[in-house]
Hints:
Blueprint: E1 17-20, H1 23-33, H2 38-41, H3 43-46, H4 58-80, E2 81-87, E3 96-108, E4 112-122, E5 128-139
Antiparallel strand pairs: 1-3, 2-5, 3-4, 4-5
Amino acid sequence: MTINLSEITSGMELPDSKILVIQEHIHMYAEASRDFNPIHIDPEFAVKTEFGGTVAHGMLILAHLSAYMTSNFGHSWMTGGTLNIRFKAAARPGDIITINGKITSLEPADNFTLVSCDVLCRNQKDEAVITGDAKVRMKH
């Protein structure tokens, strides 16, 4: 559900979203992105690495974060949203990733308000997978 500018306040928490990381989606992302690194798609190879198994593409989890921002900010996100993120840990098949955000500031300008938001993707162990901030221009 898209949030209206009039509903946003500094310190406001955005609703959580959860995704389940599954190997089938990792394979589908590999096909779409043409990234067939065996760390993502070959369990026999991946088990011998420092990860001990396959991991999701970081950009796959980031795509879910962008979809989360779209669900909260709609067209404003798609036309005027930016992310500044850091990948902190790998997401693995079976992980449940919780995505959330918190409004940190509202900066009025002539024809829009710049909404800043901290964003976080964390796994079921409460470990950060992606951290960062987002900015979205919302028209008055």
